[in-house]
Amino acid sequence: MTFRIHRSENEAAYFGDRGIYRFDAPMRLTGRQRYGTCYLAQSPVGAFLEALGEINPLTTAHIDERVISELTPSQPYRIADLTHDSVVGNYGIFGDLSAGDDYALTQEWGAALQQVGFEGVQYHASHHPKLDEMSIALFGPPGVNWSLLQYLKDDGEPEPIYRSLLEEMRSRFEMRVIPATSLAK
Fold first, then answer.
1. What is the secondary structure of 107-173 as a DSSP string?
2. Taking the CA of residue 109 as centre, how many other CA atoms within 13 Å lie in the half-sphere pointing to its CB?
3. What is the residue-level pLDDT of the chain in tens, covering all 185 positions?
4. Domain total for the chain?
5. Which of 66, 14, 70 is nearest to 43 (CA)?
6. H/E element, 177
7. How far is CA 16 from CA 65, 85, 136, 160, 179, in A?
8. Where are the alpha helices (DSSP H) in 30-120?
9. The dihedral of CA 5, 10, 1, 87: what is its sign?
10. Structural domain boundaries, residue 107
11. What is the pTM of this model?
């Protein structure tokens, strides 16, 4: 089971190819080489931190325009685990792929892993201060791909971000959500 927080007007199974996020396909790839990336978290907390952790101040408008989706892969995927201790000695991979700012480097690693048959990478969520949360960047054709992911629940609908998650973010991370109208004053 994985989680994704996204804007309510967007599909949860969207695989973006803008080349601006951590494991997106590098812009140098064109045509059939080009792939999309769907970013997922292994917990609601991880999804919240990755989607909203950098927004400050965080307002009710930011929350209200987003939903949380509980998704599961439609089949087993071959995922490169960049969090396993062995990647240091075997591949010279360090924490900078999870938390560093050099997206050109992470995109090249993602492309290399995708080209040798991996369908995604697991990495530490960079917005968690202890890097305790895990994220997955799943690779697939650009666009909406319901053939690769499906809703965990039968109704096939995302849900509003639940109050208990907001409370957990407030108590654990001291994140506060302020009314959007207070910014206009």
1. HHHHHHHHHTT--EEEEE-TTSTT--SEEEEEEESSEE-TTTEEESSTT---EEPPHHHHHHHHHHH
2. 26
3. 899 999 999 999 999 999 999 999 999 999 999 999 999 999 999 999 999 999 988 999 999 999 999 999 999 999 999 999 999 898 888 888 888 899 999 999 999 999 999 999 999 998 887 788 999 999 999 999 999 999 987 777 899 999 999 999 999 999 999 998 765 55
4. 1
5. 70
6. strand 177-178
7. 19, 29, 14, 22, 30
8. 44-52, 60-64, 86-91, 96-99, 103-115
9. negative
10. 2-183
11. 0.92
Q: Which two tokens stand for residue 183?
A: 């910014």
| Residue 14, both tokens | 């969207």
Q: Nearest Cα to 96, choosing from 106, 81, 109?
A: 106
Which residue in the block uniquely carries the two structure tokens 């990647």?
A: 87
Q: Which of 124, 121, 95 is nearest to 109 (CA)?
A: 121
- State phi, psi for 123 to the nearest 5 degrees: -150, 165
Residue 145's CB is within 10 A of a number of other CB atoms, namely: 17
